[in-house]
Amino acid sequence: MQTKAFSELFPLFNTAAPETLEWLLSVAVDHEYPSDRAVLMEDAWGNAVYFLVSGWVKVRRLSGEDVVTLAILGRGDFFGEMAILDESPRSTDVIALSSVELLSVSAQRFIQTLFKDPQLHHRMLQLMVKRLRQTNLRFQMRHQPPAVKLANTLVGLGENYGESTETGTEIFNIPFKDLANVTDISVEDTTKIMGKLDSKGWVKINPARQTLHLTNLKQLTHLAGRI
Prior knowledge:
WH-like_DNA-bd_sf, Env_Response_Regulators, 4-stranded antiparallel sheet, Jelly Rolls, 2 domains, Crp/Fnr family transcriptional regulator, globular, 9 helices, 44% helix, 26% strand, WH_DNA-bd_sf, alpha+beta
């Protein structure tokens, strides 16, 4: 991957020096995984930072037989950065929702890069604050009606990872159980609400292509209370 394409794909690097990008790409390791494959096991956190070149993954919390999806990440995002700074054990793993391509940079090399490039270091802090704000927003919405919470999740996925098409903003067709988990509502509510959104023409699922089109993002944004 060329440095320009890399910086355009990953907002983390849009202010990094060209030599920083060249060096990172020279030491990065490419990985490819099919859907449903474990991308990162719970005992491997802290070894590297992972950059999602294509595809979708979910971050799960493991507690005995209980498995809960905490986050859904798409193309252009990254994970593992917190674990290289905090060496506490993790009870989470990362699973591919679709076929994915990742680039990994070892923890030691990534930390070296942060110290060498102050612009990258500053940008990293900005994105971590953004994630904290998103977590706070999710907490603030815990008492909102299920439809409002689900609309907020869909709008967030569309804004962060969606691709503009003739039929609306396209995202991966997230399984309802995972959507329910990250939205903090029941699977039953998720199924019912998605059915209503489909009947209104606000979303459209294409099972053959495993895509979900947000066909009326304006109405979804209004329902989510963002306007």
